[in-house]
């Protein structure tokens, strides 16, 4: 009987077979003003629930800061968005049409989600400009890469990004010889070269001097609007200087959301941060 | 310091220019000194020396192939000798078929070793090797396809570093054991030898020896230029990126496995070509060429010459092999000690190899 049922379902005339359906659109559709939907996501590592029924929405062009104590699931959340970790349950949509959970890491990167890691990793033996060139959105298969030449347009794009991150003077310098702060900016520049819609930035100011921090704040603020930016950061002063909207994560789910002042006066947040 | 990105156009570094000029001069001079200068003149280059030089040049090409994957891609292959030997075997099979009925047993259909083993028919995989074009194709295809399949299996499972090196070592060792067996049909322990001629030219004649020497020089120059083109291209920069930060490169959107696979296979093809030119000059190919020790020696040449420079690999291969020829002549027992000592000294005091030393001298001047 069961086989018959399956057959009946398969042959229903009001449905189209799965394999005949058009592949999901890989065009980003932000018609509802939201770029990222994370709904009811849970992940467990060896019995430890890193993410617990997390719901998070990021608007198009928004600059969002995510804070939370260690182990709150901030990095795991980024891993899920970039395809590094698969959640046990829940859905992750990029715009209206793209299901992130079905895509691989390079596919997600090429769709326009860029991630900056905590520890800056630039390609040290290559020059600043070459670093940007490699990161540039382009056909990245083997043969086109072998034959690739920089067009005038692409050079202009590299110059633009060099100006945005303030490294024009260092364009020919070996990336390994840059200072820590400059490496962080170069890495943000490498993200920008991919023309991402969504930037995930993990602890951008760790280890920076105050001047460098201020410049980074300006840089990130200038990026919002054109891109959606999600910043994970521990430094409260820095968060206050850039954020309109702050999300507090705690034990894998959202504890509070709002402006910095709202969040800081929220009794639950105070308890988590101070009361423990 | 470079002010701009080199966009794939063939821009040679100074070391490369000097190397190519020296190679061109040698290639022109050696035949003249061999053929036109009388034998009793001190300037005369003997045919023995010509063949020796030709052999060194094939080693140099092999070293360039290893430098491409080790220096620029970070894959320490301890099995490149296998690709060299496979190219050599493909050429050896053609040369065996060229012997025809001039073998010891005078059998027009079967090579001597098959007659000796009481075989009555040519095994299927020997068919086609009486044609030069087919053999030449196999010289390229057999190492290339093997490297491709091997790379596909290992890179896809993200085997890297020391583990990959060990697997490449196992690959060449397994092939050595297989080729030692008589049943494999490649002459077993003795390998393939007693070659008579190549494309109708007598292998013992001076002119053929010169021809092979020139062919080796051309192959080395071509291989060098191809590698230089690759290294200067955007793909070359991606390779360096993979070498230094593999997962980062993957995050930017490059298909790291594909890049590794193609460059590794290309390198294996170069090694195969080097092997094919080596065999007619030394007159024999046997399973000893698959020995893991050989593959490790290639890596030592590259380390001594200087990694990630390409010309350094050439320099290392030539110097070490000259040293080997010299020392095994005057003091056979000392050679392995000298090689080991040299490797230790270079690792300790010249991590960039001789090329690094030259470059530092050049920068200081």
Automatic annotation (TrEMBL), chain A:
Segment forming the signal sequence: none
Name its species. Thiorhodococcus drewsii AZ1
Q: Which UniProt keywords apply?
A: ATP-binding, Hydrolase, Nucleotide-binding, Transport
Q: Name one GO molecular function term.
A: ATP binding
The EC code for this enzyme is: 3.6.3.28
One Pfam family cited in the UniProt record for this chain = BCA_ABC_TP_C
Task: Please name the InterPro entries in this protein's record.
Answer: ABC_AA/LPS_Transport (IPR051120), ABC_transporter-like_ATP-bd (IPR003439), ABC_transptr_urea_ATP-bd_UrtD (IPR017781), BCA_ABC_TP_C (IPR032823), P-loop_NTPase (IPR027417)
Q: Could you identify this protein by its name?
A: Urea ABC transporter, ATP-binding protein UrtD
- Any one cellular-component term (Gene Ontology): plasma membrane
Q: List residues of the ABC transporter domain.
A: 36-276
**Top-rank taxon:** Bacteria
Automatic annotation (TrEMBL), chain B:
Q: Which InterPro entries match?
A: ABC_transp_permease, ABC_transptr_urea_perm_UrtC, LivM-like
Q: Which terms in the GO cellular component ontology are assigned?
A: plasma membrane
For this UniProt record, the keywords arranged alphabetically read as follows: Cell membrane, Membrane, Transmembrane, Transmembrane helix
* UniProt-recorded Gene Ontology molecular function terms: branched-chain amino acid transmembrane transporter activity
TM ranges are 18-36, 82-100, 132-155, 162-180, 210-231, 259-278, 298-322, 334-358
Topological type in the membrane: Multi-pass membrane protein
| Keyword presence, Cell membrane | yes
Primary localisation category: membrane
Compartments, as annotated in UniProt:
Cell inner membrane
- Ribosomal protein as a keyword of this entry, yes or no, is no
User: Which protein, by its recorded name, is this?
Assistant: Urea ABC transporter, permease protein UrtC
């Amino acid at each position: 009987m069961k086989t018959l049922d399956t057959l009946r379902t398969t042959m229903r005339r009001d449905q189209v077979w799965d394999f005949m359906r058009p592949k999901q659109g890989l065009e980003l559709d932000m018609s509802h003003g939201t770029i990222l939907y994370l709904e009811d996501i849970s992940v467990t590592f060896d019995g430890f629930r890193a993410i617990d029924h997390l719901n998070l929405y990021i608007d198009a062009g928004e600059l969002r800061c995510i804070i939370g104590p260690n182990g709150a699931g901030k990095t795991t959340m980024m891993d899920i968005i970039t395809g590094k970790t698969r959640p046990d349950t829940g859905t992750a949509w990029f715009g209206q049409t793209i299901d992130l959970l079905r895509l691989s890491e390079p596919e997600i990167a090429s769709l326009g989600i860029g991630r900056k890691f905590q520890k800056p990793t630039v390609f040290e033996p290559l020059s600043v400009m070459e670093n940007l060139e490699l990161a540039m959105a382009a056909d990245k298969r083997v043969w086109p890469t072998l034959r690739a030449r920089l067009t005038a347009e692409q050079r202009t794009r590299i110059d633009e990004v060099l100006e945005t991150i303030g490294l024009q003077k260092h364009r020919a310098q070996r990336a390994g010889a840059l200072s820590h702060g400059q490496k962080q900016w170069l890495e943000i520049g490498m993200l920008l070269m991919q023309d991402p819609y969504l930037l995930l930035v993990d602890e951008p100011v760790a280890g920076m001097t105050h001047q460098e921090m201020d410049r980074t704040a300006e840089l990130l603020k200038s990026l919002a609007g054109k891109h959606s930016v999600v910043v994970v950061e521990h430094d409260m002063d820095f968060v206050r200087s850039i954020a309109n909207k702050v999300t507090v994560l705690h034990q894998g789910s959202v504890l509070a959301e709002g402006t910095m002042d709202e969040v800081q006066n929220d009794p639950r947040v105070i308890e988590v941060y101070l009361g423990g | 310091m470079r002010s701009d990105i080199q966009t794939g156009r063939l821009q040679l570094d100074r070391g490369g220019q000097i190397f190519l000029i020296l190679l061109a001069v040698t290639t022109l001079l050696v035949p003249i000194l061999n053929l036109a200068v009388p034998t009793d003149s001190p300037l005369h280059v003997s045919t023995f020396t010509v063949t020796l030089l030709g052999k060194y040049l094939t080693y140099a090409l092999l070293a360039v192939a290893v430098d491409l994957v080790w220096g620029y891609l970070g894959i320490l292959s301890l099995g490149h000798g296998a690709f060299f030997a496979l190219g050599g075997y493909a050429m050896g099979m053609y040369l065996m078929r060229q012997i025809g009925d001039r073998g010891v047993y005078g059998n027009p259909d079967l090579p001597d070793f098959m007659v000796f083993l009481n075989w009555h028919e040519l095994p299927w995989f020997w068919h086609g090797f009486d044609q030069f074009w087919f053999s030449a194709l196999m010289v390229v295809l057999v190492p290339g396809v093997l490297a491709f399949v091997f790379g596909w299996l290992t890179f896809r499972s993200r085997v890297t570093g020391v583990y990959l090196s060990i697997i490449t070592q196992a690959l060449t060792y397994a092939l050595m054991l297989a080729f030692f067996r008589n049943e494999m049909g490649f002459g077993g322990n003795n390998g393939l030898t007693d070659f008579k001629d190549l494309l109708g030219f007598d292998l013992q004649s001076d002119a053929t020896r010169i021809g092979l020497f020139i062919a080796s020089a051309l192959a080395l120059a071509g291989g060098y230029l191809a590698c230089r083109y690759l290294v200067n291209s955007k793909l070359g920069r991606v390779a360096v990126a993979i070498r230094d930060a593999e997962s980062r490169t993957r995050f930017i959107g490059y298909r790291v496995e594909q890049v590794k696979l193609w460059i590794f296979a290309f390198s294996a093809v170069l090694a195969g070509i080097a092997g094919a030119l080596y065999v007619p000059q030394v007159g024999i190919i046997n399973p000893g060429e698959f020995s893991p020790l050989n593959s490790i020696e290639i890596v030592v040449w590259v380390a001594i010459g200087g990694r990630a420079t390409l010309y350094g690999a050439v320099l290392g291969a030539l110097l070490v092999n000259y040293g080997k020829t010299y020392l095994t002549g005057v003091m056979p027992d000392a050679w392995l000690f000298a090689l080991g000592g040299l490797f230790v000294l270079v690792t300790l005091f010249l991590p960039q190899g001789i090329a690094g030393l030259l470059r530092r001298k050049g920068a200081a001047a």
